[in-house]
Amino acid sequence: MSETVFARILKGEIPCHRIHEDDHVLAFLDVGPLSTGHVLVIPKEEKVHLHELSADASAAIGRVLPMLCRAVMEATGATAYNVLQNNGSLANQAVMHVHFHVIPKFEDGSGLGLVWNAGTLDDGEELAERIRQCL
Predict the structure, then answer these.
(1) pLDDT value at 128 more than 60
(2) Please, which pLDDT band fits residue 68 given cuts at 50, 70 and 90?
(3) So what's the pLDDT on residue 2?
(4) 88-123 residue pLDDT tens
(5) Annotated catalytic, 99?
(6) Domain count, the chain
């Protein structure tokens, strides 16, 4: 994996506004926020995709996300937020290091804009079985 901006932040080469840090996770303010309080949460384990993370790194992220969401809501007064995580350039991943966005949503419309183009589930049981076989 080529060195990313997040790897450079983890090495201390690029400063950030740290919110939380432990042995497995770093959370900091996004420098290009979609709204006030937009936080990035990254594992210290340098992996591109979520499915590549170790169980320890995944569990650590799972432990801190709810705490960070509560803190962002309290600090900003937001009553709604999105947690966004993209995997691969086709899914709009820009930095090739696993990361989660905590993006407060406000009445003025700031935050994540989203269009959900729902389809139909035609082969549900067959698809569910194929996925179960891969577990």
Answers:
(1) yes
(2) very high
(3) 74
(4) 999 999 999 999 999 999 999 999 998 899 999 998
(5) yes
(6) 1
Contact present, 49 and 88 (Cβ < 8 Å): yes
Partners of residue 101 on adjacent β-strands: 40, 84
CATH number at residue 62: 3.30.428.10
Question: Is residue 41 within 8 Å of 55, Cβ to Cβ?
Answer: no
Which residue range is the domain that position 29 belongs to? Answer: 5-134
Q: Is the pLDDT of residue 51 over 70?
A: yes
φ, ψ at 68 (rounded to 5°): -65, -40
Classify the C-alpha dihedral 44-46-49-54 as positive or negative.
negative
8-state DSSP, 52: G
Q: Of the listed 24, 38, 97, 99, which one is catalytic?
A: 99
The answer to whether the beta carbons of residues 78 and 105 sit under 8 Å apart is: yes
Tokens of 106: 């406000």
